[in-house]
Amino acid sequence: MAQKVVWTRRATDDLYAIFENLSAFSDTRAETITEEIINRVFLLEQFPALGRVVPELNIATIRELVVRQYRVVYSLTGHGVVEILTVRHSARPLSEI
């Protein structure tokens, strides 16, 4: 069953910050990585359980996709919605959110 993917404000801000940080060094790299993240998120519409359960939380409905060095953390709401919660560099702990 197809899911609806919704980005939280935090997640869109995170993605924008990643783009801005990377574009300081290379516009091409910034575009490539952010597009790769967005394309992987689109897969959640058809495959919502694609990501693994976030190890630090161990909650079945909080999952993550790992895209290069970034973690896309999302929630399965149970109402046909996948909510993107945050996009973090893997070096940054989730305890900050």
Describe it for me?
- There is one protein chain.
- By secondary structure, this protein is an alpha+beta fold.
- It has a single domain, classed as RelE-like (YaeB-like fold, 2-Layer Sandwich), CATH 3.30.2310.20.
- It contains 2 helices and 5 strands; from the N terminus they run E-H-H-E-E-E-E.
- It has helices at residues 9-23, 27-43, and strands spanning 4-7, 52-53, 62-67, 70-76, 81-89.
- A hairpin with a 4-residue loop joins strand 4 (70-76) and strand 5.
- The longest helix is centred in the middle third of the chain and has 17 residues, at 27-43.
- The chain starts with a strand and ends in an 8-residue tail after the last strand.
Give a brief rundown of this model.
With 97 residues, the chain is α+β, with helices and mostly antiparallel strands.
Helix count, per DSSP? 2
Q: How many domains, as an integer?
A: 1
Structural class: alpha+beta
CATH architecture: 2-Layer Sandwich
CATH superfamily: RelE-like
Q: Quick one: CATH class?
A: Alpha Beta
Number of strands: 5
The low-confidence parts are none
Q: Which fold does the CATH topology refer to?
A: YaeB-like fold
Shape verdict: globular
Taking the sheet with the most strands, its summary is: 5 strands, mixed
**Average pLDDT, to the nearest integer?**
94
Please give the radius of gyration in angstroms: 13 Å
Strand numbers in spatial order across the main sheet? 1-5-4-3-2
Percent helix range: 25-40%
In N-to-C order, the SSE pattern is EHHEEEE
Tell me the β content: 25-35%
Beginning-to-end CA distance, first to last residue: 30 Å
